[in-house]
């Protein structure tokens, strides 16, 4: 089961109206999608995307029973192409991104995301994509591994962990999550309270293998022009690297072009394409009690000018 994070907050930020046209770029198990459909009337529509085949299977079931809903199994970096092919470009009332991995992905040891349950070291959201985590760890050199752990995991001990990985793989290929978790646990000299020592390494490798930050940059840049005037862009992030990208992107769109100060143009927002809506939203105490995975979630929203 996936417990949708910031569900009502996302619906409010999207301002779902009965005749609206929406995109859910991260279907997962359809928690947000179902809630959007519940607010739509017969003339509204929802298009969802996800690159995970298990999400696609869940979406197929929903599509059979609801003609307002359609789904495309793809990475969201193809957002503009998908939306254009359905003649919805510039006509969307809202686009939602609920980033990262779903609970079913994390909880299924066969997917290779979990440092708590042993399984094949895969970590691909789309298993048809070229390189698994094990394949990358087998081929990357120590400096590349260390750089990924530093930049995408903010791992203090990135050098030590990279050295330990390269040392261990010389003994035998690292193909299981359990083995990677214990290599990291041995290499990291101190523990962060309440965190498994491999948390940062697993996060970094997952983000790298799935090109998560590149996907996000690309999709955000495409999203703005797909919205109708007044349409809402809503993004839920789960770590600071994502949130920084979202925050900077929304602010730069809200600021508009950086023009030389002597141009005879009035108004501070010349060229702005978005207006920020409210402040960053975090889960309340009740949601955190019910779902500890919501801990690091942040929602940001903006409206197409
Ligand atoms: C946090 S879950 C979404 C949960 C969903 N909102 C729900 O309520 O069930 C994130 C989903 O986004 C998908 N995803 C992440 N990055 C993606 C990308 N670049 N392209 C397509 N899908 C992606 C993952 O496969 C995962 O199913």
Keywords:
305 residues; alpha/beta; DNA polymerase, domain 1; 2 domains; seven-stranded mixed β-sheet; 16% strand; binds S-adenosylmethionine
Protein architecture, described:
The chain has 305 residues and is an alpha/beta fold. The protein has two domains: 7-103 and 212-304, Vaccinia Virus protein VP39 (Rossmann fold); 130-209, Putative methyltransferase TM0872, insert domain (DNA polymerase, domain 1, Orthogonal Bundle), CATH 1.10.150.170. It is built from 13 helices and seven strands. The protein has helices spanning 7-14, 31-39, 53-65, 79-85, 103-107, 133-139, 142-153, 158-171, 177-187, 199-209, 212-226, 240-255, 285-290, and strands at 21-24, 45-50, 69-73, 92-98, 227-237, 274-281, 298-304. Helix 3 links the parallel strand 2 and strand 3 (69-73). Helix 7 (142-153) packs across helix 10 and helix 8 (158-171) packs across helix 9 (177-187). The mean pLDDT is 95. It binds S-adenosylmethionine. This is Ribosomal RNA small subunit methyltransferase H. It catalyses: cytidine(1402) in 16S rRNA + S-adenosyl-L-methionine = N(4)-methylcytidine(1402) in 16S rRNA + S-adenosyl-L-homocysteine + H(+). It is found in: Cytoplasm.
